[in-house]
Please model this.
Amino acid sequence: MTNTTDTQSGGCQCGAVRFRAGKLGRPSICHCRMCQKQFGNFFAAFVTADPAHVEWTRGQPSWFRSSRKVHRGFCNKCGTPLAYRFEGSLELAIGALDHPELFEPLIQVNHAHRLPWIDHLFDKPAYSTPAMAEFHASVVSWQHPDHDTT
Model:
């Protein structure tokens, strides 16, 4: 995991929203149903952030109030999940960071709400074929790069 005093950048898939954040804290995954729906996935991965050290450098996230207490930030152009806000606290989506590999989750939140098969997910065999490799090699990404641009 990176030093939490290092400034990290990140943003959405289309590049309309970018941010810089310092003082990042504990990386985690959350299994609650709201996080599953926000990410359209089995769980959500977040890192705590000091709101005073988060700067939206391009655009602003849109916020959806998913409950009485929680707002969830996303890009309103491409839909990328970006943040979770609760009573003055802020967490950033690890996958939205330019270097998500630096933030290995340390804890699982709402573990009792995990999907019943999640504990065995990575026991499944890896599957790859030459045709799949050829297809992926031919893909030209239109996604915003993992760094700030002008």
Q: What stands out?
A: The radius of gyration is 16 Å.
